[in-house]
């Protein structure tokens, strides 16, 4: 029988609990620590109990905390949305997963992912997706070992930068740049060879 999502989801050494209003201060403290670690200073400054309460008031947002010896050591933040606007199939997205450094490699992240899987199963979601930074090698390896494969590459820019780039035509064309560089290189070699033959 599937446990109620209001009940604790446990693994050895770690207890995982859904973030409820009484646990929101613990979540906020860990979220701030995650922002500071990732150098997201603006996000860390914006972290507040009011902001967290507003986020968790939404039906599509869910979070769990992992506890070791009664202390919160990590969290997972989930959202649920349709796979596309043309289907009723659901996807649970792991927006963030964070474990404090001293509790890493001990099973906390797996316990949190177990809670995510239980939640996705409870919703009848077809997929679980993880948002992993491209530069996060360890995180990418961790998710790959658990069967997560690449889906899409999400590229981001600021709202103010895109119109400037579009107006100036300053967007880059890597393939074209490589081709032109290769042609310039061949032309330079041909010129050097011709000079050697003449002398």
List the helices and strands and how they pair.
Blueprint: E1 9-11, E2 14-18, H1 24-37, H2 41-46, H3 49-56, E3 61-68, E4 71-82, E5 90-99, H4 108-123, E6 127-130, H5 137-145, H6 161-168, H7 174-198
Parallel strand pairs: 5-6
Antiparallel strand pairs: 1-2, 2-3, 3-4, 4-5
In words, what does this structure look like?
About 45% of the residues lie in helices and about 20% in strands. The protein has a six-stranded mixed β-sheet with strand order 1-2-3-4-5-6, with helices on both faces. The longest helix has 25 residues, at about 175-199. The chain has about 200 residues and is of the alpha+beta class. Strand 3 (about 60-70) and strand 4 form a beta hairpin. It starts with 8 loop residues before the first strand and ends with a helix. It has one domain (about 10-155): Aminopeptidase.
Mind telling me the CATH superfamily name?
Gcn5-related N-acetyltransferase (GNAT)
Query: What is the number of independent domains?
Result: 1
Text of the CATH class: Alpha Beta
- Note the main sheet: 6 strands, mixed
CA-to-CA gap between the ends? 88 Å
Structural class: alpha+beta
CATH topology: Aminopeptidase
Radius of gyration: 24 Å
Q: Report strand %.
A: 15-25%
Oligomer: single chain
The stretches of 5 or more residues where confidence is low (pLDDT under 50) are: 1-6
Number of helices: 7
Overall residue-averaged pLDDT value: 81
Task: State the strand order across the main sheet.
Answer: 1-2-3-4-5-6
Global morphology: elongated
Q: Number of DSSP strands? A: 6
CATH architecture: 3-Layer(aba) Sandwich
Helix content: 40-55%
């Amino acid at each position: 029988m599937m446990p109620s999502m209001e009940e604790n989801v446990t693994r050895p050494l770690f207890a995982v609990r859904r973030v409820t209003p009484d646990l929101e201060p613990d979540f906020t403290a860990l979220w701030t620590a995650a922002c500071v670690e990732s150098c997201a200073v603006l996000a860390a400054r914006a972290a507040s109990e009011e902001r967290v309460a507003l986020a968790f008031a939404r039906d599509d947002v869910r979070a769990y905390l992992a506890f070791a010896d009664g202390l919160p050591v990590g969290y997972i933040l989930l959202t649920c949305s349709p796979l596309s606007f043309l289907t009723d199939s659901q996807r649970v997205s792991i927006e963030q997963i964070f474990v404090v450094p001293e509790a890493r490699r001990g099973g906390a992240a797996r316990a949190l992912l177990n809670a995510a899987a239980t939640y996705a199963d409870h919703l009848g979601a077809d997929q679980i997706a993880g948002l992993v930074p491209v530069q996060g090698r360890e995180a990418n390896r961790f998710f790959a070992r658990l069967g997560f494969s690449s889906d899409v590459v999400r590229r981001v820019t600021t709202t103010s930068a895109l119109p400037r780039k579009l107006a100036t035509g300053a967007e880059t064309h890597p393939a074209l740049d490589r081709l032109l560089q290769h042609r310039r290189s061949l032309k330079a070699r041909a010129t050097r060879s011709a000079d050697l033959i003449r002398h």
